[in-house]
Amino acid sequence: MIREKINHLKKTGYRVITSFMWILTAVLTGAALGFIGSFFYIGIDWATDMRKAHPEIMYLLPVGAVVVLLFYHLMDADNPGGTNLVISGVREDKHIPLRMVPLIFASTIFSHFCGASVGREGAALQLGGSVGDFFSKILRLNKNDRHIMILSGMSAAFSALLGTPLAAAVLAMEITSVGVMNYPAILPCVISALTARGIAIWLDIPAAKFSLGLIKSFGIIPAIQISVVGILSGFISILFIIAISKAEKYSSMFIKNKYLRAIILGSILLGLTFLFDLTPTSHGAYNGAGLDMLELAIRRNASWYDFLMKIVFTALSIAAGYKGGEIVPSFVIGATSGCLIGQFTGMDPGLAAAVGMVSVFCGVTNCPITALMFAFELFGFEAMPYFMLSIALSYVFSSYYSLYKTQHFHYGKFHGDNRNNIKNAI
Questions:
Q1: For residues 312 and 273, is the Cβ–Cβ distance under 8 A?
Q2: CA–CA dist 418, 411 (Å, integer)
């Protein structure tokens, strides 16, 4: 009996010490990535402002991707893997080289400078994963604890950049295996996300916030209207994923030389930019992350073809070799398509844009809980039933498609049993 109590006390003491160690390492990770993420935000902001002030910079589009590819080649990272490498680092024990930090940092800022239609949050996941992996080596953590450090880093970088610590913490735990949350990582992910956001606030990095105004009471008719948004968001998610996959596949199939491929696809991007610059409302709208277009959609002002053109621009940019991410483009695609659907269904286009934004994000990442957290942090709780229903529908109707080839479907979307044999539909 006494021996059992002693063993119990030893286990309790070990757990307390372990918890405090995770708190310290999470604060360290969050502080480091708070600075890195904040400077990353400042760099992208500067690049975007420069491009808008000097539109002639977009003449670099045909050669910019070549510069990015050469930079990766010189750094011995011809096949970097992107966010897929970070997910593999958690699931398959693959190491994420620290050189990914300067690579993704510089190449993403340069891609935004040139006018490539890429995001920034996907790059943040890569930055965070790389730094988290580096700290795990310094601390000589075992395999399982190393995985938690990678997730902690992902949460921190994402939180600093977007200003949504709740969604950032949940995203890291949810993104690697669909249907399973990595709960052992909850303490370090939460603390690193909050710490990173605290550093970002100290450096005056704003958080993304939107106002939807008066929300109509939820009822049968609004439920039917928002169901249309959710279902179509699932299909639009599939369209976006297929567009990126096929653009990469067929361009590499028909144009073997990656530098020539970059020039040709970059030239097509430049031509499309000129084409849509002929319309004053679309001046450079599809270049860069597209946050201006997102805000216009939430303010009930989007053209019927905006979401399609954003898909085309993003797919071409990624296939050309530009670096960044697909998460912000998915936000823009969801907001513009949601605004359009809202106009056709008779619901508030601004609310439909907000719901479409997080629903398409859910469809392409298979992260419904994160999508819901995004909705709450970006728009508040007033429209909660709308977000819940649409996200659930988008999650199901996007089927087994994913932006990330290494993402693992632990449970099926249509069955309650374990579905380990399910692969990405792409």
A1: no
A2: 5
pLDDT band at 412 (very low <50, low <70, confident <90, very high): confident
* Calpha distance 42→127 (Å, rounded): 15
User: How many angstroms separate the first and last alpha carbons of the chain?
Assistant: 58
Distances 214 to 103, 331, 348, 370 between C-alpha atoms, Å? 44, 22, 10, 24
What is the rounded average pLDDT of the residues 389-401?
96
Q: Which two tokens stand for residue 152?
A: 């902690």
Only one residue has tokens 């760099």, namely 43
Give the DSSP per-residue string, 20-41.
HHHHHHHHHHHHHHHHHHHHHH
Per the DSSP assignment, residues forming a β-bridge with 177 are 408
Q: Which residues contact 121 (CB under 8 A, 6 or more apart)?
A: 158, 161, 162, 325, 327, 328
Q: How many CB atoms are located within 10 Å of the residue 215 CB? A: 19
Q: Which residue has the tokens 């918890």?
A: 19
Name the residue among 262, 269, 273, 317 with its Cα closest to residue 55.
273
Mean pLDDT score, 400-412: 85
What's the whole-number average pLDDT of the chain? Answer: 88
State the Cα–Cα distance between residues 102 and 405, nearest whole angstrom.
Answer: 24
Cα(144)–Cα(142) distance, integer angstroms: 6
Please provide the size of the chain in residues.
Answer: 426
